[in-house]
UniProtKB/TrEMBL annotation:
It is found in: Cell inner membrane. GO terms for molecular function: transmembrane transporter activity. It comes from Anaerotruncus colihominis. GO terms for biological process: C4-dicarboxylate transport. PANTHER family: 2,3-DIKETO-L-GULONATE TRAP TRANSPORTER SMALL PERMEASE PROTEIN YIAM (PTHR35011). The chain crosses the membrane at residues 7-28, 48-66, 87-111, 131-153. It is a multi-pass membrane protein. Belongs to the TRAP transporter small permease family. This is 2,3-diketo-L-gulonate TRAP transporter small permease protein yiaM. The keyword Transmembrane helix applies. The lineage of its organism: Bacteria, Bacillati, Bacillota, Clostridia, Eubacteriales. Keywords: Cell inner membrane, Cell membrane, Membrane, Transmembrane, Transmembrane helix, Transport. The gene is yiaM. Its main location: membrane. Residues 23-157 form the Tripartite ATP-independent periplasmic transporters DctQ component domain. It holds the Pfam family DctQ.
Length: 172
């Protein structure tokens, strides 16, 4: 569990860094448009802000999945008895695993095909290949995939009892 808590801590730090960088880049964009004495080119702020937001969304989705707080509609689950509820939750986890696997695979294909591409507006300042920015899909999908696999494994370990919110958390 200690390794899991370290991984969650790293993901949280990455989210904080992405959020701070996003805030700074957008603040620079606003200042460059509205303050007349700023004479430098900040065309890159819009582009980098967009990519940082994408990374933030995918890392945040992974954290939500780890914490068992990802968006879900559970009004049908609440009306079921424990055994059908568990079966439906297992089915949901299997479908989610398949979806995350497709995300990781598709993200890998996208990353592989954009290794040599560089964003035109960012080329002057950041010589990062587009694959770095596109890897958000693969990274977020992998985090969610691991979290759901662990949750599904724990569902089978726990027996026939209903899963509640505390049991849905991957890292306790």
């Amino acid at each position: 569990m200690k390794l899991g808590k370290i991984a969650v801590g790293i993901i949280k730090i990455l989210c904080i860094v992405c959020f701070l960088a996003l805030t700074i880049s957008l603040l620079l964009m606003i200042l460059s448009r509205n303050v007349p004495f700023i004479n430098f080119d900040v065309m890159w702020t819009d582009e980098i802000g967009r990519y940082l937001l994408v990374y933030l969304v995918f890392l945040g989705s992974g954290l939500a999945m780890i914490d068992g707080r990802h968006i879900r509609v559970d009004f049908i689950l609440d009306k079921l008895s424990p055994k059908p509820r568990k079966l439906l939750e297992i089915f949901n986890d299997v479908v989610t695993i398949a979806f995350c696997a497709v995300m990781v695979g598709g993200g890998y294909v996208l990353v592989k095909s954009t290794v040599t591409q560089v964003v035109a507006t960012l080329r002057k300042y950041f010589n990062m290949p587009m694959a770095f920015w596109n890897s958000a899909i693969m990274v977020g999908g992998a985090i969610m995939l691991i979290a759901v696999c662990i949750r599904l494994f724990r569902r089978f370990q726990n027996g026939d009892g209903p899963a509640d919110e505390k049991k849905d958390r991957v890292i306790s």
